[in-house]
Amino acid sequence: MYFPIKVLTPHQILRVALRGKGWELGLAEFPNSCVIFDEIHAYDPLIVGLIVASAKWLQSMGVKVLVASATMPLFLEDIFRVELQIPECNIVEPDPTNEKDKIVRDKKRHIMQVVEGSLISNLENIIKYIRYNPTKKVLIVCNYVATSQEVCKQLSEQGIQDFVLLHARFNSQDRYRIEEEITSKNPPRVLVATQAVEVSLDIDYECGYTEPAPIDALAQRFGRVNRKGEREPALVTVYEQQSVDSARPIYDPKLVHDTVDLLKMQGVLSEDNLVEILNSIYRGGYCGDLLERYERGLHHPSIENFDENIIAGTYNDWIENVIDNSDGQIEVLPFKCVDDSGNETSLRDKFVQLQRDREYLKARMLLVPIRVTQFFIAKQKGTIRKDSNIDEWVTTLRYSNKLGLDLKNQFDSIL
Questions:
Q1: What does the alpha-carbon distance between residue 148 and residue 250 come to, in Å, rounded to a whole number?
Q2: 328 with 372: CB under 8 angstroms?
Q3: Which of these, 59, 250, 256, 318, could form a disulfide with 18 (CB 3.0-4.6 Å)?
Q4: How far from the centroid of its chain's Cα atoms is residue 126's Cα?
Q5: Partners of residue 333 on adjacent β-strands
Q6: For the segment 256-298, what is each residue's pLDDT rounded down to a tens digit?
Q7: Collapsing DSSP states into helix, strand and coil, what is residue 129?
Q8: Residue 287: what are its φ and ψ, rounded to 5°?
Q9: Which long-range contacts (CB under 8 A, 24 or more apart) does 175-183 make?
Q10: Global pTM?
C-alpha cells in the first residue's frame, strides 16, 4: 500500500489531517513512521500552526517527528520543543565550544551592501556588471515570479543570453531540466530565481542581488553565494524597495523593514552575525495578525477532534474551506507551450497521449502549480476552466519552457 520512503510537502500531510479526498490511505501509512519537516522556517504562520497541530496528532500514532532548518529562530525552536515535548537532549545545534562548529560559525562568506530603490530600477547597473565581468557567475533573486520574468526579458533585450530562470510556475518536467542545468559542471553564468532557489540546491555563485525579504529568507539566498566560503568574501546586494506593489505581500512588511535596517549596519557577514540578526528580528515571536494566524492553525478543530469525526468515504474540500486564507496551490495544465524558437506544442494533446499510454506520472509532470487566489482570478477571466474529458483544470495562459507560466498574457486559442 505504501512506499518505504516518501518525499512530499507538508500540505500532503495536512490533506490527511484535514480529511481531504483520499485521507484514508495516508492514515494507513502514518502509524509508527518517521516524519521529517525540513526548512520549517519558510512557512506562513497559519501553515506552521497546522504543521504543529498535525505533528502532535502524528505523535499520538507513534510517529517520530524531526524538525530541521538551517535558519531556525529561537522562538520557533521553542514552539516545537514545548508543543511536541522535545527533550533538550534531542535538540541538535552548533556547539560554541566545539572547534569545528566554531570555524563554521565564524566563517565570513559575504560582504553586505544595501542599495536604495528596487531591483528593477537598478537593473541597468546589474546588467552592466554582468556585461563587464564575463567570467563572474551572478545570482539574481526576486520575490515575485512576474518580477523574475521581467528581469529575464530585459536581460534578453540587452543581448545577455547565458541565463536561466527558476521559479515555481514551471511544470515538473521543465523544472527538473532547469535544475539539472544549473547544478551541472557548466551552468549558465546568470541565474534569475525566486524563493525556489532557497532550498535543496547545491549551487555556488560569485555575487548576488536580491529583493528585500526577512533575514531567514535572505540567509538562504546568501547561502547560494560563496557557498563553502573557500573564496574571499563575496558581495551580496539587497535592495531596499520591493519591485512589485501587492495587495497581499509575500512577507510581513515590518519583518522586511527591520531586516533591511539591521543589514545596513553590517559590513562583512559571518554565520554568527546572521544568527544574531535572525534572533533579533524574531525576538518577540509571532505578534498581532501573525500570532492569530498561527493559533488558528494550531487549534484547528478538524485536527484537534480528528478521532471524533472519522467516517470513511467522506472528505472535506480542504483547499477552499479548510485551509481558508493560507493561499495554497492548485495544479493546472497549460493548453500549449512555446519554446525559444517560437514553436508551439500542445501540452493537452501530450497529456492525453501519456494517459492513453498509462504514463500517469509523466502526464502529471506537465501540470503547473499556481496559488489559489491566482487560480480564481484566472477562472473569473475565463483563462482557466475544467476540461471534463481529462478531469483537469486547463489554462490558455501563456506558457514558455524558458519563462514558465505568464499570468498576464494568454495564447490566442480559446478553451
A1: 15
A2: yes
A3: 318
A4: 24
A5: 394
A6: 999 999 999 999 998 888 889 999 998 889 988 889 999 999 9
A7: helix
A8: -135, 160
A9: 176/365, 177/401
A10: 0.85
